[in-house]
Structure formats: C-alpha cells, structure tokens
Amino acid sequence: MTLVTDLKGPKAPARAPHPLRAEAVRGFAPWAGAGVLLTSGAMLAGTADRWQGGWAETATEVHTALLITLPLAAAAGCWQGGRERRRRTEELWGTTVRPPLARLLVPALPVAFWVVVGYLVAVALALLATWPYAQGDRPRLSLLLGDAVAMAAGALAGHVLGRVVPTRLMAPLLAMAGYLGLGVLQSGGPAYARPLSPAVPVGVGELPVWWQPWAMAVWTGSLACAAALAYAARRRVTALLPLAAALAAGTLLAQTGDGLWHSDPLARRQVCDTSTTPAVCVNARYAGMLPQVSEALSGVTGKLEGVRNLPARWADHTGTLRAGEARLPGITPLGWTAVRGRLTSPVEFAWEAVGALQLRGDCAEEKAGARVLRADDVVARYLAPSPQQKYFDDLDARGDASHRAELRERRAAEARFAALGDRERRAWLSAYFAARAGCRLKEVPAL
Fold it and tell me: What are the tens digits of pLDDT across the range 369-380?
C-alpha cells in the first residue's frame, strides 16, 4: 500500500480585497452615483424639448444641472462621512494602524468617484439623445472637466463636514444650503462671486476661454483637498499648499469676470438659400434646417416673384440687422418654433416671416392709420395667412357693430386686392414694400 504525501503544503489564505475596492463595489457609494444619474436624467428628460437637437443647448442644460447635482453630491459625501458615528464604530476605527488621512479617504473617494460617474453617464446619454437631431455645430465638451472635478470636490468636502458634524440632519441641511447658495450666485449674487460658482449660467451662444475649466477645476478641487488635509493630515500645514492654489485660481476667476466667456464665432455665420427673393438664411449652428425653412417660406417667396423693394434676405444672426435684411423668425430658443430639429408649425413660421418683411424699419407703428393696418392685413393674408385668422374673424363676426363693420371693410379690401391682375398686384406690392421699408406710412397704397 502506497501513501501519497501532499508536498505543496497548506494553501495560502485568500487575499482580502483592498478596502477601496470593497467600498467602491458595495455599500453606499454606488447608490450615490445612481442617485446623481437618476436626478440628472429626470431633470434633462423633463426639459428635452429645450435642448434635444442643439449641441450648445445640450451643453448648457447639462451644466445647469449642477445646480441640483452638486448639492446632492455634497450631501452624499456628508452622509458617508457620518457613517462611523451612526454605527458607533468611530473608536474602533481609531485603534487601527491606518493613518487618519487614509481612514478619511478610503470611504470618501468611492463616493466622489461614483457621483462623477453618475454625472458623466447622464451627460453621455444626453449627447446620444441629441446626436440624431443635431442640425449643425459640434458637441461642446469644454465645461466637462470643471463640472466633473466640482462634483468630486463637493463629495469630498461634504465627507469632511460629515466627519466634523456627524448628525443625521447635516446631509439634508447641506443639500438645501448648497442649492440656495448656488441659486443666489446664479440669479443675482455679487458680480465678483458669480465667476466662482461651478454652476455659473452659460449662455447658449457663449464659450469659455480655454483655461476657464482648468481654473475652475483647481479652484474647487484644491478647496476640497485643503479641507481634507486640514482635518486628517498628520502635518496639517500641508493644507496650505492646495489652499494657496485655490486662492490663486479663485482670484484669477473673480478678476477676469465676464472675460471668462466669449461669443461663439459660429453663431455669427449664416448659411443661405439664394435661389429665392428674398434669400433665406439660417444660423450656421442650425444649417441642417435650411431646407425645411426654405420649404416653409416657399409659398411666400413664390408669390413675391417679380416684386421690387424687398429686403435681400431673411437673416438669422446675433446683433443688429444690416441694410437689406429682415429678421428670420427665431428658431431658438428650442422648444417653441423648433423641436428636435423640426419646425413645430411651418404655417405660423411663414406668417411671422411675412410680419418681419412688413415691419423692417424703426417706424412709429402707433401712427399707422386704419388704411395702413388694412393694407398690412391684406398683404399678410395673401402671402401667409395666420393660423388663428379664422378664429379672430369669427370673433369679429359675433362682435358689436363696429367689429362687424371692420370685418366687412377688411373683406372688401381683400376682394379688391384679389381682383388685381398679376402685373398690377406686383406693382402694388412693390409700392407697398417701398413705403414700409422707408417708414413712409402715408405712401402706403390704398385699396
């Protein structure tokens, strides 16, 4: 009988997982990230009509979400920071060989990591939702660095506060205080303090200077690091280094002020369809909408063929109109005229475009008499009737004697205009637009 001896010896015990991994995979940290993701997702879904279809609008909306998600991240860190006191294990952890800074960072960093992941996943989903409907421009990612670092810094600073004041009410109080503080800075705080807010509002047509996200990251991240070092480092004097960095970045942001932002060069460019008179131009940020805008105005431009004294184009750019331009009805803000890259009402869009042709000059419209107003109404009805015109006509028909008389006069003027031949109609419209462009209301031809 042969005995087989195990020469390998006893098996080594399985290595315990790293404390950071255990905190990151289990416990509160993943739930904090899920909370940020769900909160951001709910906010963005509720306002999807305002941003889905424009890269600049999407970037503005996800940045504005910091007003809620940043206090939420700070509250999550604060709740995690008070965990040991709630469990009454604070004295037990004090007997371990880990230094105080390590005992602080092991539960704090996973929360900071997961709230950033939740925010970035929400941003990625918003970008994916915009991509099928974007009509021009390109994704705007310049603010993401500052936003992500601010989320992590908020969680870390909240964790330190949760260690210092480990009460159950501290987390919700911190969330409310953070929301109110950011809201005050966003709506009407001191001018020097507004650039220091991570959630400072950004206009759709604005871009940050290249170093603003880096300065914001240094400002928020260094403040959080200084708080952690001042609380838990063996040599608390080391907190002076990140504090000095934060003061330098904050001073740079505050002194630069409005210079942190500049207008988007693309918003000053246009793409035009010059096959019609007037030409149809849309902002280059929405170049993909030019075919449907031209189609919406095709009925107007077809009826204006051969008419003189028209503006050269409908323009869609920032700033004042140039000579020979009429204002194109606003495609922005999204959610009204256009939603997800489509015009919500091409008929109403055409009616507003005709109104822009009629009111080109800086005229004193209050001096326009009944004859001018009647001519305006006839032209608008001919080129692009209002979708609500029948409703208002029915109201006048059911109104008192003066309203009914005015309705009869409008209909009579419309009948006289319809009776004109093509050449007479073009001549009348040419005289009408010449008088309207020069604010010579007395020269508006009668009907």
Answer: 778 888 888 999
Structural tokens at position 41: 């997702």
What is the structure's pLDDT at 1? Answer: 43
Q: What is the pLDDT of residue 291?
A: 94
Q: What b/e sequence results for 120-140 when a residue is b if at least 16 CB atoms lie within 10 Å of its CB, and e otherwise?
A: bbbbebbbebbeebbbbbeeb
Q: What are the residues facing 338 on neighbouring strands?
A: 343
Instruction: State the pLDDT at residue 19.
Output: 64
Structure token pair of residue 271: 């793409």
> Is 163 within 8 Å of 231 (Cβ atoms)?
yes
How many residues does this entry show for the chain?
Answer: 447
Residue 158 pLDDT > 90, yes or no?
yes
Q: What is the pLDDT of residue 11?
A: 57
- HSE, CB side, 13 Å, CA atoms: give it for residue 34: 8
User: According to the model, what pLDDT value does residue 210 have?
Assistant: 93
Q: Mean pLDDT over residues 192-214, rounded?
A: 90
Residue 249 reports pLDDT greater than 60 = yes
Please give the pLDDT value at position 87: 60
Element (H, E) at 14: none
Q: Phi/psi of residue 339, each to 5°?
A: -135, 125
* C-alpha separations of 97 from 89, 92, 94, 142 in Å: 15, 11, 8, 43
Q: Is the pTM of this model over 0.90?
A: no
How far is CA 333 from each of CA 44, 57, 286, 295, 338, rounded to the nearest angstrom?
16, 9, 12, 21, 8
Gap between the Cα atoms of 155 and 151, Å rounded: 6
Integer CA distances (angstroms), 62 to 65, 119, 189, 265, 293, in order: 5, 9, 22, 22, 28
Q: Whole-angstrom Cα distance, residue 29 to residue 402?
A: 72
Tokens 């009737």 sit on residue: 385
Which residue bears the tokens 């209050």?
A: 366
Helix axes 28-46, 100-130, angle to 10 degrees: 30
Which residues in 158-278 belong to E strands, given as ranges?
A: 206-208, 261-263, 270-273
The encoded tokens of residue 26 equal 């289990």
User: SS3 of 206, please?
Assistant: strand
Residue 366 dihedral angles phi and psi, to the nearest 5°:
-65, -15
**CB distance 437 to 360 below 8 Å:** yes
The structure tokens 């031809």 sit at 445
Convert the pLDDT of each residue in 272-284 to its tens digit. Answer: 999 998 999 999 9
- Residues linked to residue 283 through DSSP beta bridges, in sequence order: 270
Helix axis angle, 66-81 to 55-64, nearest 10°: 40
Task: Give kind and range of the element (H or E) at residue 434.
Answer: helix 422-437
Please give the residue that has the higher pLDDT: either 85 or 68. 68
CB 279 within 8 A of CB 220: no
